[in-house]
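User: two proteins, same treatment. go.

Assistant:
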Amino acid sequence: MRAPTETFKRARQLRRSMTLPEVVLWQALRKSRLGGVRFRRQHPIGPYIPDFYCPSARLAVEVDGMAHDSPEQVRHDGRRQTWLVRQNIKVLRVSAADVLSDERLEGILLAINEAAGPSTAFWGPPPPQSGGG
């Protein structure tokens, strides 16, 4: 679904003002560093702008900071998630605090890779054993 013009303008603004957790996650996702799976940042889909979107897997990744704790934002996030799921898009929500933790970031990347589906570039079968065994 094509996004309205105003949504595209807002997406451009959001790309220029990404939060630190979004920047950290983007550095890990960009240029297919995650098993060859390509992501877009602040990609407009209909009336919404997921933080990261993988078109081949139809996967949206949302980084939730403290701003997502307010009752109004929780309702908005719920409406957005419902709409995206109806568009056959999976939504994975991750905590901003977890993204900023090196130990937890690795787990987040594994979860994203799993949700996006294995790619043969990263998760293919092991190489054949040498030695005729």
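Protein 2:
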Amino acid sequence: MNELPFIERFTHEQRLHESRQIMNKYRSSAPVIVEPKDDKTLKIDKTKFLVPWDLTYGQFMYIVRKRLKISPQDAIFMFCNSTLPNSQETIHTIYQKHGKSDGFLYFVYAFENTFG
């Protein structure tokens, strides 16, 4: 099944409206979209996350790893705007640098088998 990315499924206005509603209701969190790099990559069970501003990128990556149920030998790389954030950066800092005009922060993940 070839599902379109979130950014292509909804218009800019729809995404902006949804992000504003989320941010008005949950002021201490960022609306984040996490999607696979391509159709061949293991799919995550949900793509929208509400992430506390003070959570670090490393902590968020741990949450994503748990949701994907991947083995310890599989490395995951989550890119934001084609860059790999520092694991100690907060979601707030990343959002300020890479948040889109629709109000969402987008991450794309890919895998690499590191021990086999």
